[in-house]
Automatic annotation (TrEMBL):
Keyword Metal-binding: no
Organism: Hymenobacter edaphi
Protein name: DoxX family protein
Biological processes annotated in GO: methylamine metabolic process
Keywords: Membrane, Transmembrane, Transmembrane helix
Lineage: Bacteria, Pseudomonadati, Bacteroidota, Cytophagia, Cytophagales
Protein location: Membrane
Domain of life: Bacteria
Protein topology in the membrane: Multi-pass membrane protein
Length: 367
């Protein structure tokens, strides 16, 4: 029993630290997920939840840092009983979110492990049930964990240090870009190739005749079979990017042009939250890229409406034409508003936050 309890203790503490660090790697992505929850709750339970919508980034770092700190405190066995009760509150909270998502099909990915590990709603819920089981084993067998690895002031110092490190990791990622990019638009990826299936998709056909359901790997020629459902047999070979599209003011398709030659995509997700103070430097970058010997073509892309963006670009003196893309796509492309993607024939050669605006020389070096 002692060995089982210690194994559960290690797993519970380690998983909390891992989960928190993965979220702190991309706090904006975690904030997007929280915003999605708040929007769903506002629709189902009242507009009160929209109060938290504007606090999503702060809550993202707070909750993620709390996971890390509680995981460290548990492994140190620091104030063990209080730590375990605090963990229970978080576990019940997460279990409610995942159950609600799964039962009512509201949020299809809980974001438990960020974009590193994608979990389906019911998988997420059962993961939380497993964590609650680990918690119960540890809580009801604390007698096997009597030794405290850091008592008194030393323990407080360790936990405080863990908190400072966790918050520091999150705040730095918030002001720059994720340390590790798990999204399909990461540096080195070929967007055009990821828009194509890795292998031909194969399907099975679920058909019904006379109250009998049967699966076929080829569509039956017998017309008495009635079609019910078509299911992909190798969905993992499907396109990794399915929604990338860029269009102009007249709805003309420009996706192919974006993925041809050297392009500097200046992504302004929306005009409401875009940092306006950086646009004098951004305008210099656009001018510098336009005159580059490597023929770098700047393209300004937004999800705002034409009227909103036209007013905005005059306010910040933004030069050149602008184009449009879906808001969710732009959020996936870069966690910065504004942000920059450097492409060479559709291959991502560089990604830059508006706090790290590159020089023309740096762009040319990346190509």
């Amino acid at each position: 029993m002692r060995t089982l309890v210690r194994l559960c203790w290690l797993l519970l503490g380690g998983l909390f630290i891992f989960s928190g660090l993965i979220k702190l790697n991309d706090p904006i992505g975690t904030a997007y997920k929280l915003e999605e929850y708040f929007e769903v709750f506002a629709q189902d339970f009242g507009s009160f939840f929209m109060v938290f919508h504007g606090m999503a980034r702060t809550l993202s770092i707070t909750l993620s840092s709390l996971e890390v700190v509680l995981g460290v405190a548990l492994l140190l066995r620091w104030n063990l009983r209080t730590t375990l009760w605090s963990l229970l509150v978080l576990l019940v909270f997460f279990a409610f979110l995942t159950f609600y998502s799964a039962a009512f099909n509201k949020v299809t990915d809980c974001g438990c492990f960020g974009d590193f590990i994608k979990l389906k709603p019911w998988t997420s819920f059962f993961k939380d049930m497993f964590l609650l089981l680990l918690w119960a084993v540890v809580f009801f067998n604390q007698r096997y964990l009597r030794r405290v690895f850091a008592k008194g002031t030393l323990g407080t110092m360790y936990v405080t240090f863990a908190l400072a490190v966790a918050v520091g990791i999150g705040v730095y990622a918030l002001g720059h870009l994720p340390y590790f990019d798990f999204l399909p638009y990461k540096v080195g990826n070929d967007i055009g190739k990821l828009m194509q299936p890795a292998a031909p998709l194969r399907y099975k056909y679920i058909m019904e005749k006379g109250g009998t359901t049967q699966e076929f790997t080829e569509y039956p020629t017998d017309t008495l079979w009635k079609f019910k459902q078509m299911v992909a047999l190798n969905p993992e070979d499907g396109p990794k990017i399915t929604d990338f599209r860029v269009w102009g003011g007249e709805q003309e398709e420009l996706t192919k042009e974006v993925l041809t030659g050297n392009k500097l995509l200046v992504i302004i997700q929306n005009t409401t939250k875009a940092d306006r103070d950086r646009f004098p430097l951004i305008n210099q970058l656009i001018a510098g890229a336009d005159s580059s010997k490597k023929r770098i073509t700047p393209m300004i892309i937004t999800s705002s409406s034409p009227n909103e963006f036209d007013v905005f670009r005059h306010e910040v003196n933004l030069p050149g034409k602008y184009y449009f893309a879906d808001a969710t796509v732009l959020k996936s492309m870069i966690r910065s508003n504004p942000g920059f993607l450097l492409l060479q024939d559709g291959v991502v050669k560089g990604k830059y936050h508006y706090h790290d605006i590159p020089s023309r020389a740096k762009l040319e070096e990346a190509l």
